[in-house]
Write a structure and sequence with these properties.
Layout lengths: L1 H10 L12 H12 L7 H5 L3 E3 L6 E12 L5 E11 L3 E3 L1 H12 L2 E2 L1 H16 L3 E10 H4 L10 E8 H4 L1 H12 L4
Parallel strand pairs: 2-5
Antiparallel strand pairs: 1-4, 2-3, 3-6, 6-7
Helix pairs in contact: 1-2, 4-5
Length: 183
């Protein structure tokens, strides 16, 4: 990977031997491996033993889980927030594990639409919930830094499974909960 970065620098017209770039190939390689570490991690790593028996049958919501990803088309940053809600079915997941699930899928070359679905399906498969709702809001640097150069644009995607898909009232409750206090 380091050699590939050197070639990229040369093709850009840079001198990889100049002082400021001498260690750049190694730094870029380490950064890319970190930013894509979700590719090599199984879902069980994110969950551990944090699935607990519970009588709760009301919506559990964790909102504003920040994430950083790389778009698979340009390898430029996607920066945003994820809101997750689920209706427990005898089991609840440790709250921090929802953030770990987000990181697992964000830390790979990705498109937002797929990441949204993958997070929802992961929460569903781990918890056996009666329903799962995921909303992702993000800024895409491939739209802001190049191309159309729309810095203020935000992309919103959602995935509703089970009761959140089949019952408009449940979906509406989730949307109200994640919207509370937002400007």
């Amino acid at each position: 990977m380091r050699d590939a970065v050197r070639v990229i620098l040369e093709e850009m017209g840079e001198d990889p031997a100049r002082e400021g770039l001498q260690k750049t190939p190694e730094r870029v390689a380490r950064a890319l491996l970190f930013l894509t570490q979700g590719l090599k991690r199984p879902l069980d790593d994110a969950i551990g033993d944090a699935l607990f028996t519970s009588d709760n049958d009301e919506i559990v919501v964790v909102r504003n889980i920040e994430f950083y990803s790389l778009c698979e088309h340009h390898m430029l940053p996607i920066i945003g927030h994820v809101d997750i809600g689920y209706l427990p079915n005898g089991k609840v997941l440790g709250l921090s594990k929802l953030a770990r699930i987000v990181d697992l899928y964000a830390r790979r070359l990705q498109i937002q639409e797929n990441m949204t679905r993958e997070i929802a399906e992961a929460v569903q498969s781990v918890t056996g919930a009666r329903g799962v709702a995921v909303q992702v809001r993000a800024a895409h640097m491939c739209m802001a830094m190049r191309g159309v150069e729309k810095v203020e644009s935000e992309t919103i995607t959602s995935m509703m499974l089970g009761a959140f898909r089949n019952h408009p009232q449940t979906r509406q409750e989730f949307l109200q909960l994640i919207g509370q206090g937002r400007k």
